[in-house]
Amino acid sequence: MKIDDKLIDYIGDLSRLELSPEEKAARKSDLSDILDYIEKLNELDTDGVPELTHPFEKTNVFRADEVTNGDRHEAMLANAPESKGRYFKVHRTVEE
């Protein structure tokens, strides 16, 4: 793929960037380098290489979710000046 000024302008419009002529030339060079590298990678023989979604074999290293504090409504409502059932009672903030 050939990177030209028209493509750089189009990408700039899509990303809503106003690029100076120097920045356009630099981005043109950067994109050309990236595409050249991708072409070089496409030359590699990857037959028989399994597809990976992650480079490491561990799938889940997170701890199990366990409820530790439980239902503490009574303890929380004990600090409230007023409550109604399982809820805090507050003054009306919106007038009709």
CATH class of the domain at 5-42: Mainly Alpha
Stretches where pLDDT is under 50 for at least 5 consecutive residues are none
Biggest sheet, in brief?
2 strands, antiparallel
Tell me the fraction of residues in β-strands, as a range.
under 5%
Number of helical segments?
Answer: 3
- The strand count comes to 2
Architecture overview:
- The protein starts with a helix and ends in an 8-residue tail after the last strand.
- The protein is built from three helices and two strands.
- The protein has helices at 5-14, 21-42, 73-77; strands at residues 83-84, 87-88.
- Strand 1 and strand 2 form a beta hairpin.
- The chain is elongated, with a radius of gyration of 30 Å.
- By secondary structure, the protein is mainly α.
- A two-stranded antiparallel ribbon has the order 1-2.
- The protein has a domain at 5-42: Histone, subunit A, CATH 1.10.20.
Task: Give a brief outline of the structure.
This protein has 96 residues and is mostly helical.
Walk me through the topology:
Layout (H helix, E strand, L loop, with lengths): L4 H10 L6 H22 L30 H5 L5 E2 L2 E2 L8
Antiparallel strand pairs: 1-2
Task: Using brief descriptors, characterize the structure shown.
96 residues, mainly alpha, Histone, subunit A, two-stranded antiparallel ribbon, 2 strands
